[in-house]
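Below is a filled-in request sheet from our internal design queue. Each sheet records the structural input a requester submitted and the sequence that came back. We keep these sheets so that new team members can see what a complete request looks like end to end.

REQUESTER: design group, bay 2
PRIORITY: normal
MODE: inverse folding
CHAIN LENGTH: 161
BACKBONE (tokenized):
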């Protein structure tokens, strides 16, 4: 069973899926096309991506107007931030093994900061990666700097810095 939770944006939301625990650990389904369609996720996801990052790594803020993203933290914890590029309004979410997923609409800026020792993040997209289609919003842009913890000195890639 899926539970859909609203965010500050009408077209972005979080999703919680059932977690089946027993003495061995747990089992959960991270995506099922038919089940997700019942809560409004009807996108044609064609690619899954996974990143591994260490504490204090910040990935983002990336924008692709061609595709939404369905983001899930498989291990560890991240502070996930989305920005509506029409209004520069932002919202942040804690994603972890808490089973929450974040649906990021196409055209929103998206990035995350690893707040645990390490994190593994998975996300689905509807378009193959094309560097010509990707735009960037500086992570410490004056419109969104308050989205991150104060005095943040993150570890960044050359592209993200």
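RETURNED SEQUENCE:
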């Amino acid at each position: 069973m899926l539970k859909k939770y609203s965010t500050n944006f009408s077209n972005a939301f979080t999703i919680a899926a059932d977690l089946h625990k027993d003495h061995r650990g747990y089992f959960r389904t991270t995506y099922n096309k038919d089940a997700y369609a019942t809560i409004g996720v009807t996108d044609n996801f064609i690619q899954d991506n996974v990143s591994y990052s260490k504490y204090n790594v910040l990935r983002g803020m990336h924008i692709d107007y061609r595709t939404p993203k369905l983001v899930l933290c498989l291990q560890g914890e991240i502070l996930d931030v989305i920005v509506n590029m029409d209004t520069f309004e932002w919202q942040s979410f804690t994603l972890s093994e808490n089973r929450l997923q974040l649906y990021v609409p196409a055209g929103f800026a998206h990035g995350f900061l690893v707040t645990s020792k390490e994190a593994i993040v998975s996300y689905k997209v509807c378009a193959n990666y094309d560097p010509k289609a990707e735009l960037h919003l500086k992570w410490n842009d004056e419109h969104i700097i308050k989205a991150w913890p104060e005095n943040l000195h993150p570890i960044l890639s050359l592209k993200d810095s």
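SHEET NOTES:
- The chain has one domain: 2-147.
- Helices lie at 33-37.
FILED BY: M.R.
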